[in-house]
Model the fold of this input.
Amino acid sequence: MSNKGRLGILVGGGPAPGLNGVIAAATIEGINQGYEVIGFRDGFKYIAQGDTTQIKPLAIRDVKDIHLKGGSILGTARTNPTKSEEQMKNIFTVFEKLGITALVSIGGDDTAFSASYVAKYSKGKIKVAHVPKTIDNDLPLPGTAPTFGYETARHYGVQIVRNLIEDARTTSRWYLIISMGRAAGHLALGIAKASAATLSIISEEFRGRPVTVDEVCDIIIGSIIKRKAEGSQYGLVVLAEGLIESLGEQGLVKALPEGQLERFGKVIRDDHGHLRLGEIEFGRLMKELLTVRLEKLGIKMTFIDKDLGYELRCADPIPFDAEYTRDLGYAAVKFLRSPEAEKYGAIISFVDGKMNPLPFDNMLDPKTGRMQNRKVNVDGEAFECAQAYMIRLERDDFEDAKQLAKLAAVIKMTPEEFRARFGYLAGLK
Done:
């Protein structure tokens, strides 16, 4: 073992483009600074059980070509060892046995919380640097700095959605795209905005008030009516999957006939208490609800639902993330070598091209173990621009008599009936 000891690297949470870039940069810089580098397979999963068979010594030759490849050569897992005192003891036993003196963890806020435990309870024996990642872009990094993986996920998401828009145009149908994004709508909105999707709906636009299935359906129905009034028979809607949590289990149950929610999946939570959103077929649920509601209005429409997310998480990183993750991996090791690392573990970020380590204690809520989510700023011009280019019912549609009559005629209503039915979407009482 080198005189500096060993540097451990592990990945937790869901995949994101650029994981291999961080692994490669941290490995190369670690070795250049005199560490031996050990990779742990599947995050905390095995070492939390005291298992040392799933480790991989890393040399420069192992990582020199991986920064442009998607996925993770170390795998990943969502294991939460902080729930078990025994598992945390196992982790420290493994680290002591292997001579781990420094740790680079890569993941979201749940992995950051587990890493913060290592920093806190090792009492300085193990220095810890955490590199934040999520394609959701919902971690509170300084300024507008994205989490790595987001830009790549958006890039490939836009390519997919543009193809689907062309399919919708060709076949005169509507697509319902459910985009990943548990706590914030950055990815859904970013994909929709850049691909010129017809409409996007994210939780933030409701500004904390209760969200109902009825209102979400009506926003989409309003868009369909407006498109038909303009002579267009197709469209594409991007819904943030976080709407599932905003609607809540009871909201979904209320929108369906008794006992029908089970048709669309099970309500399951992971080790960190999160709803397993991927287990609920939200797109299919919305498709069935919209089909029934539109038929009552005299509109027959073909919907195709598609979940978008798993296709993006292990994509090869675009140049932005390939460069960004090299910076992050390099900076993580630089922080571990600094005097500050003797005092606290930190989340690695950049401001203006300069490393900005954020102490765990300043970033993690001690009660929840999570970072505050960075939401889409729905009061800024960026969101204002996004909405301006969407097709949805607006106040002007109800104040212009000719436009109102045109919209009402699509579903054979009088203007007054149309205003009474849909006016609330534009803030009319």
The chain has three domains: 6-148+317-363, 152-313, 393-429.
